[in-house]
Amino acid sequence: MSEDRSLPIKGVLNKLSIKDLDIRGKRVFIRCDFNVSLDENLNITDDRRIRAALPTINYAIDEGSKIILASHLGRPKGRTDTRYSLASVARRLQRLIKKEVTFLPDCVGAKTEDTINKMSEGDIVLLENLRCCNEEEKNEEEFSKSLAKLADFYVNDAFGATHRNHSSIVGITKYLPSAAGFLLQKEIEYLQGVVNHPVRPFVAILGGAKASGKIDVIRNLEDKVDKVIVGGGMAYTFLKAMGYDVGDSLVENDMLELANEIRKGVIAKGIKFYLPVDCVISQSIEPGAETKLVTTQEIPKGWKAVDIGPASVKLFSEALESAKTILWNGPMGVFEVDAFSRGTFSIAHSVADAYALTIVGGGDTDLAVNRAGVSESISFISTGGGAALELLEGKDLPGLVALTDK
Ligand code: AMP
């Protein structure tokens, strides 16, 4: 039996769902995001993206469809390359669903078509990495048609690639009835549904390297949030704009004016705006480098902020206490280095402990939450980095727009 994928908030998506298609016994092309990390021996080190696609795949199995799975993996630059082959994904998927998954060494062409034409109900094939064909990323018309020829229906369950204007995401939808899979629906329900209609108080925590990458998220959320917490590298652009001397911390000088404008605008709307009050500083981000703990008003020349300090952790954690909805996107420091990870991991624990609906926007924050060991306590962790950010910025995702309207 496939899992019941009831969603917490309904009606956000005005596009067909896989459940609206009559896929029983039919060929269904499911675009997944199997862009997993591999080690040097090509073993999968993290299979969460494969697991996230299982509800849709299991549903199609239950419906007795002929299932054609497709994905990208890394950047093979239009050439077949064993380092980017999906063969290991086929093996892992086979183990997870306890059903044979036939791996096809190409994604289009006579041989691929021939194998698919011979499929029986319930059979599953996985095509080779779509990006081994140059045409995929160019959304080339003939390639899109060749992909569409393989199936009767198209299902997009590749949220992490839905912001891409590629053949398997956009082009193919011109030729087939096209619907959203369960993972894609869930991502939209949380990142658009919950975020746009939050149970308040709603707190957004933003971090990561650059202010320029997150300014539009603040703009898009400013009529919905009650508090904005800014940490990570991006905080120092805001602090410098306020006249602080931030030493050699990461600063985007061309963003200073805008950062001030955004901060003042947010505060004028009655939203609380938090910045770090203390930080861990270092002269380099190498592991083992000397560190000091200082207030954000006294970062000396030659030193850069690499993590938030304990007073900031306390300030931010207290701000989360009354929250009913929390969105977190971007680490509080250079958490990849153990010595600079404490602030990020402490915030991960505060988010996980909050009595609130908690949403983590993919990419690095996903990794941070995982390393902090609190993934299980987060309501929803997005599988998409760039796609999640674009949704949070209020942008339309091309792959979503392309699906068939309800
Ligand atoms: P983003 O993709 O914008 O969310 O940025 C994530 C990256 O921001 C991570 O790789 C962190 O190492 C980096 N980062 C976080 N805080 C800082 C900081 N204070 N200085 C430099 N880089 C940072």
Please describe the structure with a list of short key phrases separated by commas or semicolons:
binds adenosine monophosphate; 406 residues; Rossmann fold; six-stranded parallel beta sheet; elongated; alpha/beta; disordered N terminus
Descriptive report:
The structure is a single chain. This protein is of the alpha/beta class and 406 residues long. The protein folds into 2 domains: 18-180, Phosphoglycerate kinase, N-terminal domain (Rossmann fold, 3-Layer(aba) Sandwich), CATH 3.40.50.1260; 188-392, Rossmann fold. The protein is built from 15 helices and 17 strands. Strands 5-6-4-1-7-8 form a 6-stranded parallel beta sheet. It has a 6-stranded parallel beta sheet with strand order 11-10-9-15-16-17, sandwiched between helices. It has a 3-stranded antiparallel beta sheet with strand order 13-12-14. The radius of gyration is 23 Å and the shape is elongated. It binds adenosine monophosphate. Residues 208-210, 213, 232-233, 250, 305-306, 330-331, 333-334, 336, 363-364 line the site of adenosine monophosphate (AMP).
Describe how the helices and strands are arranged:
Layout: E1 27-31, E2 37-38, E3 44-46, H1 48-52, H2 54-62, E4 66-70, H3 87-97, E5 102-103, H4 110-117, E6 124-126, H5 134-138, H6 141-148, E7 153-156, E8 178-180, H7 182-196, E9 202-206, H8 215-221, E10 227-230, H9 235-241, H10 256-268, E11 272-274, E12 278-282, E13 291-295, E14 304-308, H11 310-320, E15 325-329, H12 342-353, E16 357-360, H13 364-371, E17 380-381, H14 386-392, H15 398-401
Parallel strand pairs: 1-4, 1-7, 4-6, 5-6, 7-8, 9-10, 9-15, 10-11, 15-16, 16-17
Antiparallel strand pairs: 2-3, 12-13, 12-14
Helix pairs in contact: 9-10, 11-12
Adenosine monophosphate binds next to strand 14.
